Every structure is written in structure tokens, then in C-alpha cells.
Amino acid sequence: MKLIQVSDIHFGGENREAVEAATAWINAAAPDLVVAAGDLTLDGKVAEFDAAAAWLRRLPDPMIVAPGNHDTPFVGPGELFERFTRPWRRFTDRFGTEDGAAWRGDGVTVVSLNSARAAQIRWNWSKGAVARRQIRRVTDELRAAPIGDLKVVVCHHPLMEILGGPMTARVRGGVDAANRFVQAGVDVILSGHIHLPFVTAIPFGDGKTQAVGSGTLSLRERGAAPGFNVIEVEPGCVRVAAMAYERGKFDVWRTWAFDRRT
User: What is the pTM of this model?
Assistant: First the structure.
């Protein structure tokens, strides 16, 4: 099974050449599932959401879309009112539920959660948070997955800090969520936010749960060229290839492989 993981396209500040090249590459790859892990827009504006929706319609189905911290209005007249009263309306109007999308393919179960917040009791609202009710819901769905399935959680913020990353996520409740998801048997946690691809083990349980982050397709690069991830699920392992847009085309920038839990 092949999954494509994109995030942080930031329409309104997207890398147009990279987005167009990614469109052709992803369609040619014919993945079984496309995962969009948040920050589809730059400022949560209507025109940016429309551009994001138009782009995702050009990609293969099925698809799971989770929101990021940029996917709620916050810049311009009236935008803060919209943010405080209907923070996810623009997202849900175009992509369905903002928390709790799910998909099951042949041997793979995927569930999502919204780690972004419209407002928080701290200065930086861009950081993530996971509520206890979200943890309960996701753990219940993971435990209900068929035995032998690769269990995947999708959210925008890395639940735990990535050592050496270009920025922090500081997810409130993130460490507890990661721990409980591991106990429920999660194999892979997909995220975005830091604009840099990575694969790193979650340090709980048997150590086989992997956090996998994708890069950005925007102009907001942080140490890597615009890109996305290709995730290939095999009977004994999972392979991740970070694709990078350089010199007018996508090439493999880095690869990882890790054993599946048995």
C-alpha cells in the first residue's frame, strides 16, 4: 500500500512551481491514500481555502485532511470575529469534519485529530493541544482496528518535540497523547508543522511507534527544499521517502525504513 503525506502548502504563500510538479507526481504515483496534515492556507482567508480545495480536487481519492494552526481566520477586518465564533467553518465547508476523519484500506487503519486551537491561554496560539476527549476517541478507534492493521494517526503538530528541528510544537497534552496512543497500538503518527521531513521513534512502549513529519510545499522553507513524503507499507516494514523539489523536478531527498510491530 502506498500513502502520500503532504502538509504546510500554505496557499497564499505556496511555491507554485513545486505545487504543480507535486500534482503531476502524485497523480502518476496513484497512491492508495493521500494525507494532508494541515496548514493548507497561509492566513485562513476564503480565497486561500478555495485554492486549497481546488488543488486537493486535482489529487487522487481517497483522502484524509486535517487542519493546522493556519487554517482558521486571523488576519484582516472581521477575521478575528470569525475565528472566535466559527473557527473551523471554512475548513469544514470544504473538507468535512475538522476532527475525527477516518479511513480503512487493506491492512491499514487511519484516524485523525485536530491539534490546532483557535485560541489558547498562552501567548503563542500557533502551538498545539490535544484534549482528553480526543485522546479517548483516538485510543478507542485504534483498539477497534482489525488485528494486523498498520494503525496510523494524523495530526498537524508533532505530539513530542523533534530534536534538532527548526521550531517547536509544544503540544499541550501531546506527551500523554503519544503515550496512550502507543499503548493502544499505534504504529505511525503523521504530522507537519515544522516544514522539515523527519522520522523518529516515540520513546514509549516497545519503541516501534514512529513519528513521521512531512515538509512544506510553500515558500516558507526551513532547511529543506519544498517536498512531501511517500510512505510504502509492506508486510514486515514501512518505508518513507522524503521527496524534494530541486532543479525543476522531484527527487528522493532522504529515505527511512522501520520494522512493523508484530
Answer: 0.96
